[in-house]
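pipeline: protein-struct stage 2 | run 1193 | Response regulator transcription factor
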Amino acid sequence: MTHAPTFLIADDHPMFRSAVAHALGSEFDGASVREAASRSALEKMLEDGTEFDLMLLDLTMPGAIGFSSLLWLRSEYPDLPVLVISSNDRPRTVRRAQQFGAAGFVSKAAPVETLGKAVRHVMQGELWFEATSAERSERDAELMSRLAQLTPQQFRVLMLIAEGLLNKQIADRLGLAENTVKIHVTAVLSKLNCRSRTQAAVLVKTLDIDEEDDLE
């Protein structure tokens, strides 16, 4: 890479973002780093047209449920490599991150040197899943297939359904007409083969990070 890289850090902890930004600045001369503290801020930053070389994503941010942001990124920005950085480094979490399309995974407990190595590997088009055996889950593959059918707006509606919001509340949150939201909800339920909003919400919850992921 001949140009100075541009990074996007998505994490809701300011001190951690600052630490990662400092590490990236030390590793890459002239690097540009932008930050997002929530799912909505992440969307707005990507929509402004800036081209990023790498995204560093925390799985637990306001507006996100587990792997939902990762799946959304892989669907909407398939050419943007995503390096997941999480405090939950259990084997199943790492395996799911890889299966859901991440280019790498780094534990928040890892030393700065490991982060630097991971970033360089991913930016060279390689994967970085240190000492992890990735076992494919057919259940997760089927979940990815169902969610991939949704448009970006339908995905946003689904996430708000999962939060328990009613159509009027979703309309207010997204700046849409209530009838438009109703149409989106109907489409979401149909595409996901869900009979009710509750069933759709339960489906989204399966994207959450399982605290007992070593039991699978």
